[in-house]
Amino acid sequence: MTEPSKLPHPAVPDHQPSPGGIAARARAAAAPQYLAGLNAEQREAVETLDGPVLVLAGAGTGKTRVLTTRIAHILSQGRARPNEILSVTFTNKAAREMKLRLGQMLGQAVEGMPWLGTFHSIGGRILRFHAELVQLKSNFTVLDVDDQVRLLKQLLQAENIDDKREKLVKTHFVRRLAPLFDLYINDAFATAHRSQPSIAGLPELLPSAAGRLMEKELDAVSTLLEEPKRPCVYSLGGAKVEDKLPVIENILSRGKADKILLGGVPAKLFLRVRQVETKINDEEIRDFKQFLGQAKNLTEKYRDHIEVPLDLAYEDKQGKRIDRPVTSTYTEQEALDIGSKTVEKYSNIVGEAATTVANGPLGVFERNGFDKGTRELLESMAKSNGYTVIGGGHLVGLASIQGIEEKFSHVSTAGGAMLSLLSGQNLPGVDALVRAATRMRMSNPLA
Q: pLDDT digits over 306-355, tens only?
């Protein structure tokens, strides 16, 4: 494979971008806008340009924003051209979102840059392993188009990822590994909502059981869905409206929650239902159009149970936080957090709750000054005498930074799997363990 430094660049000497390219326009600006809002650690990660150009990222990792900004910085500094960077994401949706965000950062669409959505279970080691199977160097930093096609075909043929269990057991992964083991233990609750060979394929062929962590996680969520202590309060935020709406529908329709406290994108959606105008960025508008009708139906049925912000926090011209009531219909800027009055209201509700569950930040907590809503919600939960559960990488990470992680009744290792259970869905990984247990009982009824 051709190394990045040896790639041909016709009519452009010394690997420099053309005068009218992305890098030239970026250098004309005093300070790149895409660096605004990053903290010191994030900025260092973005501006450190040494190392491979291969980027591995995925939705929900908490690193997607930094990695996307890093790609923008690499391009703007002329360290690589778009066709020299392969961005590997865990899902095709993540690839689309990162591509859109990259174009927004640079002020123009980035053409010629390959994006490879390899599904959630593909990590760096497996990617490099399969690269070797199709005669690619395992220390690659650049893939050309033909190599990408060969690699993707090999991945699909060998792994058959995210499919029905009947097909999973026939994959190269399961057929090669299953005969080598006597027992399968799944202790990865965070991946139990995936139907993949290592999760739902191996248990079909091996005696299998849940690990202690899996057991603990399932017990915690079962408590929430069966007989939670009342009042039971949920705080739902973050950016993924599609994950939160099914949870709201399920727990309210079954009478398992008394209050839903909304922040992040879900709050904006339900504020729009209540005729409150808020600025929506380009990445969120597709979700708004798709889910507005569902939010309207939920509001009609459960209006008294769904709490929306009283005020929202914005950034003023000096970069400082300013709170505005939602009645002011302030749409010039995007809201970055719930406002102080909302923080106080939500904290009081949590303080009186016997059960509190939180998933997703209430604002853009990575930006200085706009972590107030999320931080104070977590502090209120930590001080509570009730049963408290937090889940998702953002909340768990922030609780750890605050030094209060040990003060919650249960800290889930999962985000998506926890939400899937709370929304009433079955988990393929758990279903596979149940089937394995049934087979073992039938083969040894006296055990």
A: 999 999 999 888 888 999 998 766 667 788 999 999 999 999 999 999 99
Flag whether pLDDT at 5 surpasses 70: no
Closest-CA residue to 161 (of 201, 129, 127, 196): 196
Name the residue with tokens 């391009």: 75
Cα separation, 412 vs 408, whole angstroms:
10
Which residue ranges make up each domain of the chain?
4-159, 165-210+427-443, 215-414
Amino acid at 212: R
Which residues are registered as beta bridge partners of 88?
56, 116
Q: Which residues contact 249 (CB under 8 A, 6 or more apart)?
A: 294, 298, 423
DSSP H helices in 233-387:
241-253, 264-273, 282-302, 340-351, 372-383
Angle at 365 between CA 360 and CA 370, to 5 degrees: 130
* C-beta separation of 343 from 372 below 8 A: yes
Q: What is the CATH topology of the domain spanning 215-414?
A: Rossmann fold (3.40.50)
Q: What is the pLDDT of residues 356-385, one digit of tens each?
A: 999 999 999 888 889 999 999 999 999 999
